[in-house]
Amino acid sequence: MIINTDKDEVHERSAWNKFEAKIRMHLYVLMHELTISQVFTVLLYKILLFIEAAQFVWYAFHPRLDFLWDNGTMDVLRKVFKFSQVDQFLQDDGSSVQIPLLYLFFGFLVIMLVIAIINIKMLSSNNSKKHKSSSAFLNYSLKALNVYNFLLTTILAFPFYFTFISIFACTWDNPLNSGMECYTGIFFLHWIVAFLSCLILFVSSLALTFLSVDLNPWSKSPFASPKSPINLIKLTLKILVSAYFVIDHKANATKVFITLYAIVWLFILFLRYRQTPLYNRSIFNFTIGLETTIFWISLISVFEAVL
């Protein structure tokens, strides 16, 4: 009896290992094809990095940080930078913007997931080379997934996570949820959609962060680089910052937030200093400039908080 139980456990473990290895192989095949199906130039990638940096800068002098200096210049900067994020639009219009964005983002994520699954199936078939050379759908969908890869790892994570988390943390006194009845009636449908969206987004983000890596020093890919934890740190920061600004809508811990925010950016700069540079020197110098700017703006906000 004990022997049979042990055999069953070994069999289950073996089946799970085979399944895990199969999934990993399919993902590697897809990521390899995405890596060699580049559609973004260095200039376009720099534009995405600039917009991503603007999103990070926005939270360094967010209107909720009421201890910051208040003048005409700051008002103009906030009016410009707020277009890089969705939180101010949700703050102003509540559920009338929140719900359409939720279902728009959910539909987009589902479509891209379906395209990815179809691509994996086609690439993993015995006639993958024939599919690749003859299928217009495969070629164009790989390009679409490549664009999705760049967008998700740069500018889409913030608005997506912020919208989904604002549903999870729904409260009656949060301006983000104005016009919505939390935890009753149709809200549970919104909550399920937000949960599924967040699950798809999180798994996709992790897969792209860990697997969509080009380690070839002679690669023409603009994001080719040695292994680094910085992208994972940035992804984590986007999730935590979104969660903080949803939950702390009464601005009770803004000084603690901006202090920790500056420390994280100092740590990112430290990692940049310690690691091998990105293979594309133009991208590397541009990235260093953006991250240094974010850190110094965050540090100025810290000085404003403590003085």
Description:
With 307 residues, the chain is mainly α. It has one domain. Helix content is 73%, strand content 0%. Helix 8 runs antiparallel to helix 9 and helix 11 runs antiparallel to helix 12. The protein is globular and about 60 Å long. It starts with a helix and ends with a helix. The model has no long low-confidence stretch (mean pLDDT 84).
**Euclidean distance between termini CA atoms:** 72 Å
Quaternary form: single chain
Q: Helix coverage percent of residues?
A: over 70%
H and E string = HHHHHHHHHHHH
C-alpha geometry: globular
- The secondary-structure class comes to mainly alpha
What can be said about the biggest beta sheet? none
The percent range for strand residues is under 5%
Quote the average pLDDT.
Answer: 84
Question: What is the count of distinct domains?
Answer: 1
Number of helices: 12
Number of strands: 0
Residue ranges: pLDDT <50 for 5 or more in a row?
none
Q: How big is the Rg? A: 22 Å
Task: Compose a concise summary of this entry.
This protein has 307 residues and is mainly α. The protein has helices at residues 2-36, 42-58, 72-81, 87-93, 95-124, 128-134, 136-152, 157-168, 187-211, 230-247, 254-274, 281-306.
